[in-house]
Amino acid sequence: MMKKWSVANLGENAEFLECINAMCQSVGVSSACAKMLYRRGCRTVEAAEDFIQKNGLSIYDPFRLPDMQKAVDRIVKAVENGENVAIYGDYDVDGVSATSLLFLYLEQLDSDMKLGYYIPDRFAEGYGMSSSVIENLAEKGVSLIITVDTGITAVAEIDRARELGIDVVLTDHHECREVLPNACAVVNPHRKDSEYPFCDLAGVGVAFKLVTALEMTFTGDRNLAIRNVYEKYSDLATLGTIADVMPVLDENRNIIHFGLMKIRRNPRPGIKALFEQAGIPIEKCNSSTISFNIAPRLNASGRIARASSSVELLLLSEEDEYETAESLAELLGEYNKSRQDEEQRILEEVFSAVEKTHDFEKDRVIVVSGDTWHPGVIGIVASKVVERYGLPSILITFDDEENSGSGFDVGRGSGRSACGVNLVEALSHAGEYLVKFGGHELAAGLSITRADVDDFRRSVNEYVRSIETEGMWVVTIEADCQLEASDVNMKCAEDIALLEPFVPRIPRPCFI
Ligand SMILES: [Mn+2]
Fold first, then answer.
1. Helix (H) / strand (E) containing 88
2. I want to staple 215 with a disulfide (CB 3.0 to 4.6 A). Which of 189, 225, 427, 475 is the partner?
3. Do the beta carbons of residue 491 and residue 28 sit within 8 Å?
């Protein structure tokens, strides 16, 4: 892989220069900082000030989300009738924080409602809703399922719920397909008919808006409702928004700004215990410590065992539950440690296999298989292989009970893309060698029999050769601007800190 550095083209005309000058004079930032602000969308002094002071709060009316009124009406009915309600979540940080947020909110309402939650097992069930789980919930007398961070493609499963007499209120933030499930309400900012001004909410962001809408309905006071919900739940919304790498813009910026402040000032026991277990003082809570230290711990339970221990931890809300919080945080810390060890072990095996067997002259896609790799970890390792070689990489593991070493073994694979290769299209091209596959442009999963691995490798590489263009394998790094050595001083560092928080997808400051 080659890296090409360039300075971002900001269209440096008279208007641009005038704007940069105005920002330097009126906001008092250096010209490097002004250029960064400009590149992040600030075109006036007011916009720059708002960005820095986290002003101009974008808090939109939750009822502008499609079907929000229907969702609220159905949930209010369940509250009034004391129904048996299940929250259906997901095993990643976004899913577990959304499940916890909605559970905690519904639990504190004065109601006879019976409340439960369900988080799928990554290994037994995989991602998304399952009909057998819904059948199980029906047997337990559940009459309403509320999904968080999941369900937008579960057309058949939601039909099954309907047959069994269960209503479903669906909340999700994943891309919508042509056909939406036939649920009581489908709340998703990505719906084509959505009039909501901001579509990059995380799953927990959508749950946060649902809770705001419910609180507005129960209190009849918009401002009070917003204040209550931000005060009590913005920390949970922050975890999922950062972990799901949502852009820190617009409404997400508010959520994260207030959420981080809440964690620093008044952390709930679970989050406090996680920081302590990670050995990080809670004052150091920011977007980086959350994405690199806290989120992996909350994720590890779903990768190594069951994600419900992460939900249990986040549900603790009383000070006297701190001991329980400590022991759960300890457990997540151990899961995270074994995840890291496993990751390191696989990584070493994969790197040595690539160096020995991969034909860099001929093949652009790395396909490596192993016999003992934990299927919950190979996705993370695949991204590290991409980082090192800059090539699309697919790892396959035959690690399960049926592993006999024969050609009939079925293995699971996980791939990550690079350099604009559409992974799902590459897999479709090699589809005849796969048992199953799915995913999107940048990340995908598959299953394959051992006997087909070599043909599969040949076939995806054939595909990538057929779409190869000149310069495709060069990674371009765009810097904000060029700095002189004398520009690199305390003022510069302080200016950069004004623009926090940084997370992936929002360009981190980068200079030549
Ligand atoms: Mn999500």
1. strand 84-88
2. 225
3. no
Q: What is the DSSP string of 290-350?
A: IIIIIHHHHHHHHHHS-THHHHHHHH--SGGGHHHHHHHHHHHHHHHHHHHHHHHHHHHHH
CA distances from 163 to 75, 167, 501 (A): 20, 10, 46
CA of 203 to the centre of ligand 1 (A): 5
Closest among 451, 449, 450, 391 to 415, alpha carbons compared: 391
Residue 371 pLDDT > 70: yes
99 CA → ligand 1 middle, Å: 11
Q: Where are the beta strands (DSSP E) in 188-241?
A: none
For residue 229, the model assigns a pLDDT of 97
Contact predicate 240/193, CB 8 Å: no
The pLDDT tens digits of the residues spanning 452-484 come to 999 999 999 999 999 988 888 887 788 888 899
Q: By the 8 A CB rule, do 155 and 181 touch?
A: yes
Stretch 193-216: mean pLDDT, rounded?
96
Q: How far is the CA of 315 from the centre of ligand 1 (A)?
A: 19
Look at the pTM and tell me if it is higher than 0.90.
Answer: no
Instruction: Give the ranges where 28-113 is alpha helix by DSSP (H).
Output: 31-39, 45-53, 68-81, 93-107
Q: Is pLDDT of 290 > 50?
A: yes
Record the tokens describing residue 308, joined without a space.
């419900």
Note the pLDDT tens digit of each residue in 255-285: 998 999 999 999 999 999 999 999 999 998 9
Cα-to-centroid distance, 150 and ligand 1 (Å): 8
492 C-alpha vs ligand 1 centroid, how far in Å?
35
Supply the pLDDT for residue 505.
47
Pairing of strands 2-7, 114-118: unpaired
What is the C-alpha separation between 372 and 370, in angstroms, rounded? Answer: 6
Neighbours of ion ligand 1 (CB under 5 A): 94, 149, 203, 244
CATH architecture label of 365-472: Roll (3.10)
Write out the CATH class of domain 62-266.
Answer: alpha beta
Q: How many residues are recorded in the chain?
A: 512
